[in-house]
Structures are given as structure tokens and as C-alpha cells.
């Protein structure tokens, strides 16, 4: 979605760090919208290299969390590559505070409640910064907001009250195929970082409880965001795209994490909400067109620069808008899908990826685009 290209064309088939993103992919969805006069802002996880690459965003506040290659040159967490670290150290008064302080691994299946104030949780921080952007942005121009939650990816650390809500519950039995013994050479049973291996039922139950608690915490932040859009009178002209990069096996077939073709790992949500007033012609023409000369003054030459960008963007949009996957328009693809109902009538709960007779919720990123 960021590049408008499938792996076949953008060439990144696997998990690799060190690819110079701006050089490899100079045209992105945010850069196209920025050139059309949009304010573009990102907060949360981007997971690109170099770490401060903005991918077409005017500005970004990062919580890339556990980029190991980025941590090594600094001997651990550093505000240089992670704005959340600076926030955490400032708010706790501890100059060495780190998101590793919980002793939960970024790929571990061990879980425990978040042991700091809820407002310091990365999920809450991503939402708070997004709400601040809505407050401080220039209301005379449209915007693109990219917010990316690191959770429910491990570490599994929901706030204590959500831990209590799900801990001790019984969940549906896990599907386990008879062939799992074929993975014997990869198995490390009862290891907290093991991707393949058997575990006690209590371990599975605890991991799943924390996972569900993490999802509900994201759900609450999305509802805060929805309320903010209504308060700012933006709900009727803001397109919302909701997507995840992968799921989690959550113990199915004695597997955790990702990287396999099973539904729990590979089946991800793509939800689109397009306000009714914008649905006519969606996918056929660029939805944002300013009347000729409808520019607004800005101080210190910023208005002239933005107007030039907007003119270039309008010329590009007149040719059909930014390309979607492999040259097809994303709007046209979404038009073939069922659009979500009005947010006034729906509360986001979870996105579920069906796997073996039960669902694995997966939530990761939300894109907002106003016209």
C-alpha cells in the first residue's frame, strides 16, 4: 500500500533490513498526497531503513520498537531512532528508561501486565500523538495521517485492567496437525522465544489472554480517534483504511509468530470506510479537486510552496490519481469490496483472521485521509 507495488515489482520478498527505502521507492502514497497539497504525518512503527526515512511524510514520530540493527550502534534504545524512548525517559524521570525494562521479548510468548502508568503504554502514546496532530494541523488544508500500533505484536503487555479481564478465560481449542512432528529439528519446547514447539496449556491461555487484551486496548484508541474526527467535524470527509501486515499463529499447529502460509499468519484485514458523500465516483476519479484559484494564504512563503505542490498534484491526479497495486487504482479495487457502514453506527472491536475454526485478531495500522 505504501509503494503501490506488489512484492513481484518492488522486489522485497522477505524480511530484510538495510534497504535504502527513499532511494529504492521514491514515490509513495504519502509523497503523492503531499505533492497534491496534503499535510502528511506519521506516528508509530514504520520499520524502514534508514530509520528516519519519512517515506513522503512531512514529519513522523517513531516507535519502531525492536529494530535490532538500529539498536546495536547505540548499545540499546536511543531517541535517535525511537521518539518513544525520549518520551518515556522524560515522563519517568529515568534517563535510562527503556521499553525492554519489562523483560518481555519482542518475539516471546511470555506475558504480563504493563507495569507503568497506562498513558505511557506505546499503544496509548501513538493514539495521543495522533490526536495532537488533529489539534495542531492547519485546518484549511486536507491531511493524511498514518498511525501504526506496534501491538498486539509481542511483547504481550496490555494494561493491568485488560489483563484481568481476559486472564483465566477459556479459549477455543487449538488446531494441531498430526504432522507437527516433522518440525522436530526446529522445536524448542517450552522456550519463551520458540516459534515451533509445544507448550503447556496455561502458557497458551496466558499468551492469548494478553493478546486479546492488547487488541481491545487498540480498539479503545480507535474509538478515541473516531470521537476526535467527529469533534473536529472531519468524520464526513475522512477516508479510513485499516490494515495489518501479518497475523500471529497463537499456538495453532504448535506455532507462534508469523512467516507461514496458515491463515493465522497470512490472513490480514483490509477495512475501508468511505463517507457516503465521497462514495460517488470512488475509484473512478481523484476524490480531492480544488476549484481553480481556490488557494489559501500562508505566511513566510509557505503558501506559495504548497500551492506549487498542489498544482503539480492536481495535474498528476487529473491523470487518474496515485496508482494502486501494480498500476491499478486502489480506489477501484476498494470499490469492488463492501465498504464499512457509517462510523456513527459501528464500533470497531477486532479484526479477525480465520484459522482452524477460530479467529486470530490482528490489528496494526490505520490510515486517515481527509478531503
TrEMBL record:
Can you name the source organism? Answer: Bowdeniella nasicola
Location of the Sulfatase N-terminal domain: 1-280
Alphabetized, the UniProt keywords read: Hydrolase, Metal-binding
Question: What Pfam families has UniProt attached to this entry?
Answer: Sulfatase (PF00884)
**Domain of life (superkingdom):** Bacteria
**What name does the UniProt record give this protein?**
Sulfatase N-terminal domain-containing protein
One of the record's GO cellular component terms: cytoplasm
Q: Where is the composition biased (Gly residues)?
A: 321-330
Signal peptide region: none
* Region called Disordered, residue ranges: 289-330
The cross-references to Gene3D superfamilies, in alphabetical order and at most eight, read: Alkaline Phosphatase, subunit A (3.40.720.10)
Q: Where is the composition biased (Basic residues)?
A: 289-318
Asked whether the UniProt record includes Signal among its keywords, one would answer no
The taxonomic lineage of its organism, from the top, reads:
Bacteria, Bacillati, Actinomycetota, Actinomycetes, Actinomycetales
Listed GO MF terms: metal ion binding; sulfuric ester hydrolase activity
